[in-house]
Amino acid sequence: MTRIFMFPGQGAQHAGMGRELFGRFPELVREADDILGHSIRQLCLDDPDSRLGSTEYTQPAVYVVNALALRAARAEGSAPDVAIGHSLGEYNALEAAGVFGFAEGLRLVVARARAMARIAGGGMAAVLGLDDAVLRLVLRRAGLDAIQVANLNTSDQTVIAGPADGLAEAATLLLDAGARAVRRLDVSGPFHTSHMTSAAEEFAPALRSLTLAAPAFPVIANRTARPYPETGIADLLIGQIDHPVLWRKTVEALDTPDAEFLEIGAGQTLTRMLRALRSHRGDPS
Residues 98-130: pLDDT tens digits? Predict the structure, then answer.
């Protein structure tokens, strides 16, 4: 049996996440509070200032809850053979594999979130029920070059990103082309597209200032859908910000008969994607 830990990213946040975890790991929670300058428990459980949906707060919050869930899984005797993470969740996968420590990872996530939050005026939308090749063709024929593929999640779901007005126009065209639905996502920018290149450049020095260890077990990179090498980890993480997440390719390569996937962290978003991929190929499990 190959056990694969999956860590969700931004979009998985919800009020109340981590409720059962904060009291179990008080030292880690205090460390997070010291780094963030606010109470992570209060943000996730009460969100008194309505900040949980803002990128600068969302990404660190999801990282912390995922990290607490990892420690809860380990305390119950569960350990991964492979780890994957969707976008932000990749930082949890790398932390689990010992590439950096919890605090180092959280500081990286804070720097990443601040850089990404500075790119305003755009968003993302999930396109359901349309082949990604058809989707690209529709966008190209309409001259919507600013709308780009951001996440290749499942056979039935591709996420696009770009300026808000372009997303609205793209939605109409894609629905006319046969998409079942086009749904705006609760994010504040056009992540994982060339619109984020300045954010990647801003974030690069924070990554390059660290000495990153080789992963203790395979972690599959969003950027390539291949295992992280022992060197060049920083380059892949920088490139992840302004390139698509190859989630479908990642999961399909790992989903062998002896694979056991466990979602670690906030919500069940990745578990639902796994079911969708299996359903498409006729596997009901």
Answer: 999 999 999 999 999 999 999 988 999 999 999
Choosing among 3.40.50.300, 3.40.630.30, 3.40.50.2000, 3.30.70.250, the CATH entry for 122-184 is 3.30.70.250
- Joined together, the tokens standing for residue 61 give 């919050």
SS (H, E, C) the chain: CEEEEEECCCCCCCCCCCCCCCCCCHHHHHHHHHHHCCCHHHHHHCCCCCCCCCHHHHHHHHHHHHHHHHHHHHHCCCCCCEEEECCCHHHHHHHHCCCCCHHHHHHHHHHHHHHHHCCCCEEEEEEECCCHHHHHHHHHHCCCCCCEEEEEEECCEEEEEEEHHHHHHHHHHHHHCCCCEEEECCCCCCCCCHHHHHHHHHHHHHHHCCCCCCCCCCEECCCCCCECCCCCHHHHHHHHHCCCECHHHHHHHHCCCCEEEEECCCCCHHHHHHHHHHHHCCCCC
Summarised one tens digit per residue, pLDDT across range 155-213 is 999 999 999 999 999 999 999 999 999 999 988 899 999 999 999 999 999 999 999 99
Domain ranges, ordered by start, for the chain: 2-118+193-280, 122-184
Give the domain 2-118+193-280 fold.
Malonyl-Coenzyme A Acyl Carrier Protein; domain 2 (3.40.366)
- The CA dihedral of 53, 248, 141, 170, to the nearest 10 degrees, is -20
Catalytic residue numbers read 87, 192
Residues 6+ apart with CB under 8 A from 27: none
